[in-house]
Write a structure and sequence with these properties.
By secondary structure, the chain is mainly α. The chain has 27 helices and no strands. Helix content is 78%, strand content 0%. The longest helix has 29 residues, at 575-603.
Length: 700
């Protein structure tokens, strides 16, 4: 009997083989699968374009390299926006060609304005909407720049270019969806479980006081990335899995609940840290420690959480100071948020369709960032176009195309100068390899299978480099411009001089773009970063002044989105990174407390309170909201003092309400409970403003 025929040994061997294959597919196998699918889609698009006798199969081939992503939802999303962007770019090319007939100067001005506008809108509308706007810009340049002096060929070129792009879109979508598809919805499910477990572990470590300040900041920065990444994945999953669309409200509410829980955890951590030594409360410390132990246990379910929540108030002495009561109130709210997360997770796992409103995720980009992107792109395009027209450069059209591609593809990068420089290096490599293929490889090839076999090594290498974040610019530059410069057409023109001239034109335009991105107000300029930071601080003012309807969702999503931009602009552990994180944390702390305070105040019935006390309470809260909003808009020592004084006056007014209620016949049940919550919110805001670790310290 052979080894494979032994019944007792067959199962363990097959199981080990299966486990090893599954682990490989989850790690290195996923990379090789994506690489193989990208090449298959590229060669399928090229082959069909040749069979259909389209003039430039290289465009269809280039489309697949730009579109292919590890998950099918990503490809479908990019395909939708690429389709829309291509149509918009085609219309723009036709309109510009019709208006500026054989007028290169007017055409250059019109194309400059169009590309700069599209690039600015790409920065304004990020994620895959960014891709649609960027494509609308450089599609017009790809079509119109080579034919500015030949308007009679513009319509035919527009139609054929659109057909080539659409063919690449179809091939990418089919290969991604049918050939061993990987679904973002599966990643979404795994992310939910991992994020919940990691948050519980982080909560336990913070409540036990085991994390230093730097470690806590790193964890909070990671939470920001998780929130923004989850929102992007949620939108992708809706493209590939129609079953998730009815549950999009559950998923959006789940992300909103997680943002609330993160803010509560930070506020609880800060409030407990601010307790003075003479306010040490063994009961509160024991309560926090017991809750941390509960999170680590296997019995931590919704029933256990809510049972613990109802027992928090009874564990504290009746005459506890307000700061201790504030900590207890924050702990109860944190438990409520975690219970909400568990409830939504259970509904999602059961496949329920919830009728709750959609939690809108607000993506914000500061207007100054958009304006500087427009100005920088316009200057680059104008300089390249002016040089082309002044010198009658035969390859000037390719220089304009290269500048358009560089500006569009780098607009989503936090370091566009570096990204474009990496693309230039990749383009130089594409010129060298393309020269070798044009002179030595293509003349010796007979047949489509051999052509694919010879193109596979360089394209696979470029795709592999593009898949790694530190070297993505090199790979993108190589793959895109190897296809544009040296990929085969139906009728190959063996003219190395044209390839080198066009390649040099693209290379020069990229170097000009890189220099402009490094000199002309780059995204990491302190002045521009300060504008984004001011937009982040303004979120606290939104919490003070915005309409209460959906205010919590708009506040949290806008704050986290702006913070993700700031974290991308600064190196980890740098001074700017720590400063931005400090402002985000205090904005979340004060903003959430303001939203809670305004919600409680709106529901508080003060008709039984004497008019003078009622008027004092209303005016003090209104003044506090105004002064705190002004502090975050224009932080200074004077505005900080005014805000602290306003908060203290509101605390006195709230305490007067409590004393008046005790002396009158006002029912003290839930009404007094709401007043205690309002006082807890006010003390939390006051503690955040006077905290020595808060960024207000520089203003003080």
């Amino acid at each position: 009997m052979s080894f494979m025929d032994r019944p007792g040994e067959r199962a363990p061997f097959a199981r080990d083989l299966f486990d090893g294959l599954r682990d490989w597919l989850a790690t290195d196998g996923a990379l090789w699968l994506h690489l193989s699918k990208t090449l298959i889609a590229a060669f399928l698009a090229m082959g069909l374009a040749m069979r259909l006798e389209l003039p430039q199969p290289r465009i269809a081939m280039t489309t697949t390299f730009v579109l292919m992503q590890p998950f099918s939802g990503m490809v479908l999303a990019k395909s939708v926006y690429r389709f829309a962007g291509t149509l918009l770019g085609m219309v723009a090319a036709l309109v510009l060609g019709a208006i500026c007939v054989q007028q290169a100067e007017l055409y250059a001005i019109g194309l400059t304005i169009w590309v700069a506008t599209c690039t600015a809108l790409a920065v304004r509308y990020r994620q895959y909407r960014w891709y649609g706007w960027a494509l609308a810009g450089y599609t017009a340049a790809l079509i119109g720049a080579p034919l500015v002096t030949a308007p009679g060929q513009l319509l035919l070129a527009t139609l054929t270019r659109g057909a080539e792009v659409m063919l690449g879109i179809v091939c990418s979508g089919l290969v991604s969806a049918l050939l061993l598809p990987r679904h973002a919805s599966a990643k979404l499910t795994a992310t939910l479980a991992q994020r919940e477990a990691a948050f519980r572990m982080l909560t336990g470590e913070i409540l036990r006081g085991r994390l230093k300040r730097s470690a806590r900041e790193r964890h909070y920065a990671g939470l920001v990335a998780d929130i923004v990444g989850f929102e992007a994945t949620r939108r992708l999953a809706a493209y590939e899995n129609p079953a998730l669309r009815p549950q999009r409200m559950l998923l959006s509410q789940l992300n909103s609940a997680f943002m609330n829980a993160c803010a509560r955890l930070h506020a609880l951590d800060q409030s407990f840290k601010r307790l003075r030594a003479d306010m040490a409360c063994p009961a509160l410390a024991a309560c926090l420690s017991e809750f941390a132990d509960l999170l680590d246990s296997t019995d931590c379910d919704r029933h256990a959480l809510m049972h613990f929540r109802t027992s928090v108030s009874s564990r504290l002495p009746d005459a506890s100071p307000i700061d201790i009561v504030t900590c207890a109130e924050l702990l109860e709210r944190l438990i409520s948020d975690m219970d909400r997360i568990a409830r939504l997770r259970a509904a999602l796992s059961a496949g329920h369709r919830d009728d709750m409103p959609l939690a809108h995720y607000v993506a914000k980009t500061d207007g100054f960032v958009v304006a500087t992107t427009f100005a920088r792109t316009a200057m680059v395009m104008a300089a390249v176009a002016a040089f082309w027209i002044a010198t009658a450069w035969p390859s000037g059209g390719f220089a304009l195309i290269g500048a358009t591609l560089a500006c569009g593809l780098s607009s989503a990068s936090a370091r566009p100068a570096r990204f474009v420089a990496e693309m230039a290096v990749g383009t130089a490599g594409a010129m060298i390899i393309g020269y070798i293929f044009l002179c030595r490889v293509y003349p010796a090839i007979d047949g489509f299978p051999l052509l694919c076999a010879m193109l596979s090594p360089p394209l696979a290498l470029g795709t592999f480099i593009a898949m790694r974040r530190p070297t993505a610019g090199y790979g993108v530059g190589f793959c895109v411009f190897f296809c544009l410069l040296a990929a085969p057409d139906n009728v190959i023109v063996y003219d190395p001089a044209t390839l080198l001239n066009n390649g040099i034109a693209i290379l020069v335009s990229m170097l000009v773009t890189s220099a402009a991105c490094a000199i002309l107000v780059p995204p990491h300029t302190p002045w521009l970063v300060g504008k984004t930071l001011a937009a982040l601080r303004a979120q606290a003012a939104l919490a003070c002044e915005g309409p209460l309807a959906s205010l919590s969702e708009r506040f949290h999503s806008g704050t986290h989105d702006l913070m993700s931009q700031l974290l991308a602009l600064s190196a980890q552990s740098s001074r700017g990174h720590r400063r931005a994180l400090a402002w985000m944390l205090v904005t979340l702390e004060v903003g959430q407390a303001m939203i809670d305070l305004r919600t409680l105040k709106a529901a508080l019935d003060v008709d039984g309170i004497p008019p003078p006390i009622r008027l004092t309470w209303a005016s003090s809260v209104a003044l506090m909201l105004r002064d705190v909003a002004m502090l975050f808009r224009m932080p200074s020592s004077a505005s900080l003092r005014r805000a602290i004084n306003s908060v203290v006056r509101s605390i006195f007014a709230a305490e007067a309400l409590v004393e008046c209620a005790k002396a009158s016949s006002v029912d003290g049940g839930e009404w007094m409970r709401d007043l205690r919550r309002i006082l807890a919110c006010l003390h939390l805001i006051r503690g955040a403003l006077i905290d020595s670790d808060a960024p207000f310290g520089a203003s003080r």
